[in-house]
Amino acid sequence: MSLDSLLFQAVNGLASASGLFLVAAGLSVIFGVTRIVNMAHGSFYMLGLYIAVTLAPLLGEHLGGAAGFWGGIAGATLAVALLGAAVERVLLRRLYNAPELYQLLATFALLLIINDAALFLWGPEDILGPRAPGLSGSVELLGRRLPQYDVFLALIGPVVLVGLHLLLTRTRFGRLIRAATQDREMVAALGINEALLFTAVFALGAGIAGFGGALQMAREPASLSLDLSVLGEAFVVVVVGGMGSIKGAYLAAVLVAEVKALCTALGVIEIAGYTFNMSWLTLVAEFLVMAVVLVLRPHGLFGRALAATKAGEAEPPLLPLDRRGRALVLAAILLFAAMPLIGMFFRYAPVLALDMVIAALFAASLHFVMGPGGMASFGHAAYFGLGAYGTAFAATQLGLSTPLAFATGIGTAAAGAALFGWFCVRLEGVYFTMLTLAFAQIVWSIVYQWEDVTGGSNGLFGVWPDWPFDSRAGLYLAALAVALGGLALLRRIVFAPFGLALRAGRDSRLRAEASGIPVARVRWLSFALAGTLCGAAGGLFAFAKGSISPEAISVGRSIDGLVMVLLGGVQSLMGPLLGAGAFTLLQDTVMRETDYWRALLGLVILVLVLLFPFGIAGGLRRVARLRRAGGAR
Amino acid sequence: MSAPSPVLAVRGIAKSYGGVRALDGVSFEIAAGELLALIGPNGAGKSTCFNIVNGQLRPDAGTVHILGRDVTGLPPRRIAGLGVGRTFQVAAVFPSMTALENVQMALIAARRGVFGFWHPARRIAREEALALLEQTGMGAQAERPAAALAYGDVKRLELAMALAGEPKLLLMDEPTAGMAAGERREMIALVRRLTRARGLAVLFTEHSMDVVFGHADRAIVLARGRLIADGPVDAVRRDPLVREVYLGGTRPGREARP
Amino acid sequence: MRPSNVLRRALLGAALTTSLLAIPALPARAAEPIRIGELNSYKAQPAFLDPYRKGMQLAVKQINEAGGVDGRPLELISRDDGGNPGDAIRVAEELVTREGADIIAGTFLSHVGLAVADFAKRRKVFFLAAEPLTDKLTWADGNRYTFRLRPSTYMQVAMLMPAAIGVKRKRWAIVYPNYEYGQSAAETFKTLLRAAQPDVEFVAEQATPLGKVDAGPVAQALADAKPDAVFNVLFGPDLAKFVREANTRGALEGTFVVSLLSGEPEYLDPLKDEAPVGWVVTGYPWYSITTPEHQAFLTAYVDAYGEPPRLGSIVGYTTIRSIAAGVAKAGGTDTEKLVDAFAGLEVDGPFGPFTYRASDHQATIGAFVGTLALRDGQGVMVAPVYVDGASVLPSDAEVRKLRPAAD
To answer: N or C terminus of chain A with fewer C-beta within 10 Å?
Structure first.
């Protein structure tokens, strides 16, 4: 390993950093002003690339290669910016009054729809675009060849950075953006057309992402997996830099890209007799960086504490069930308990019901930290996975009996949640969210690569429970009992002093501390408790499926949980249960109906979000209230 | 004012921000049953002083004793645990709970009952909470969500919460901020009544001079980080230095609010 | 799917459910269809699985037009497995319980294949894994109820070994996607090469995140290690990025490269005129296979879909052919009889005849090895040689040691 090669790799890293920066900058601008966690941001990037590789040859035929290439990039940028504006006007605008994070649900639906739309428009095969005319060669540097396009990319990042900085500091539009980033209420108070500002900001953010995607035309093919793979990195960069800080985003992009380039450059190394392949770390480098930065600097490199946003209306007080509610719940429990009998006629029903029961426990445990705790976790799947892997490992490798293996799984999840929670609960808002994500990704990458213990990317299988849980009915009833126990416990706690204190810490940390509530400890304990119950859900999952793989810990799984909670309604204790049921049923149904099931799922979620901006539970409550009002008249 | 052991004793506290002295050698005391106003023009160091007392800031020098105990640098939660109630400039309550639950929560916390996982909180300290709400004139609103209360009522609710757990000292940051003139007088009269009855020491900051001079027992005046006056309100009102700071230094008028 | 189709499906489903409910124990009539429950990661891997599905449908159509198997038509019930084992197991349960599938088949991703194989063992259902490559499926975790069609990772690597050994290079570098497939391909390669050439040195090993290769730094790191030969396991978008960067940087100039799967049209075609000339690859050169079996398949496929087949098409087509042959040999769809019939089953496919080995349930279907070149602005494999799977598989005796878990 020569110094030259390290230096050269550092220059390589700068080109990658520009790409990262461009996606992240748009995300940061959008989040800063609108506080929307835009899940569709990676989709904008992907669309930028797809549109560019389509336009470039078309334009190239008429105008020549160079005009085609650059025209393609310009066209793609413009098209994606327009799409961003349209998304804001048509969709998100309707959701600004919904509780926080409902926009996340909507943009998640959008992500699903855009991916299928791209499949429909461009087909499944990757499309490799043309090289950049005039920049397709390389320059000599340190005795190596550096692609000219990489030099161009390394420069474009700082150029955009300076451009954005000028836009933000020298123009009225920019000053409005900065004002809105710091204090949204003030902008409204100043009589500025907030609607127009939001649309413009969304178009700007989407446009930058589209531009970033289009620029990759010369480096990578347009493919359908880009949206999600880019999204995670963009989040990391924004958070590491500090939400809303463009300069921070650039530095973070450089940091992440350089760490990766370094891991790649070092290759296989030997430490104290052990050989270790550093390139393995590239799988998780960005999340390691994020975890370290957030633990040391809770608001990222350049971030400040976010002014608390007015989170719409405060949620209504939680009430114990009335008589009718209790009757309904009892009926639902009886129905689920009777599932093995129903299964004699509809053999698939118990299979689906088991998935629902597990999803319900998963979603309810997430809801506990997210609803009463006010801490939206993006990494809840980590505890699901730890529970599942703990159980699977104990059952298959240690040969423990089913109950003991299950207990091992729960213990593993509890330990993980207690450990990670200790760091996470110190952070607020979106930083908390992102640190949970970072930890989940770290767990995922360990599980993914620790072949001997976790089975690596293939996972563990042969995790079947022993008697009396080895029959479908036996396992189902046991799972139902565990889930009901967990749900009852959570409910009990929410109404107990601890639950009240948890809500108090969410409502007003200031007041809670002044009243003598140890908010950090309450949060930590609630996080650990939620993780423990989530681990139970994971353990059940391992037994139900007979196998477990790293997907159980993936971001996708965490997002599923969020979608369930939000879909059902975050402001109600029944919400996550309804959401889990609805989501499981929906997914099962749409997957069978059409090849474009993701788009269909996205559409259904979108419709539900627009109809019930407070989730299904919120919608039902409103219907009930209207009916009561009607009856009284 | 010659109580042998003051409820609150602040001695020589100082705090700088990047070389700027926000607070410089400030000392004062409060005795039980006393209503002490902390006043001064904007930027005088009122907030810094107040936040050092309540634990949100750690002083560079000096000590804070509450009931004879050194609490310098303890976090707000620990100070609350020593029997100190607080209200905020912008009233802070728990909007997703009913007024009653708010006070119950405060009572549960004061009794260190936060880590109860089983018995419904609804049935804990209900009578005491209702009594506190009655005393602050909120009895009729007990079952309403805090989010639905008028701002004046939120301030009363906050007072009820601050009084939960029988505090010996009450720290009130602008107790009448954001209220209409009539409401202000009512509020401060309520505070006066309740604290008298309970023998409570109160430290409050205030912008409204008629509130200060109409109701406080004593006032201390800060200017540019230094204590320039400490005495009964009438004496302070006549103090030439105070008059200069208020009339000469900043905008004239009884309302020093910017 | 057109609405009328959905409606028909729904009615059919309803009718089926009703009939199952009403008379669960009705003896099979003569023309009772053979229900193949097929699940695959259509959404996650569309590039490979679109042609795969077309191949399957072509085979079903041909077989049914020829009167089915023993007079029973084939009925294909296809599902998306969600690309993860959790969903896949539920889908498999659904296929077995609700749809009454006699046989399950499919899967692409290794971990999904392994999970479904385990499910098959547990529920005693016959499972023909079409595409997962992992060696574990037939060896370490092989079981009685699972068979696999496609050549495994080990087989694909072994097919490239003659070329890798033949060039007699000393300094090798390896680049692979960082998951089980890439890892085991790299391990197998190292083991086999060391065995044949003990003085070989592995000078660099790059494990890149799947789908997210940092191509520039990776190509550079390989070049900096100054290898005289490279073994590549990257595929898909990773491959395209890697090839382009390596070209621009001249990172692999004068370096001999052997590469897994890169000759498969799914991965080769997107590279267009940038296909890396001179690489020795495994793949499917449909344009230069002249055997009559393949010619017949090619004609039928192009007639049906108006486009050339991909490797996925071959896999899909042969999967259905295999099942038909197995059911015919077993004389029905009884699971245990099917398992016995598949052991040693001979099947005629577009690549010629092959066998499902009794010892490890692996099909001996082979793959083509050739060198990449450019023709009309498109990468092609020249001088492709068909390597029979049987020629690279370990002997039955060795396999028995590799298969501890099976029956």
So the answer is: C
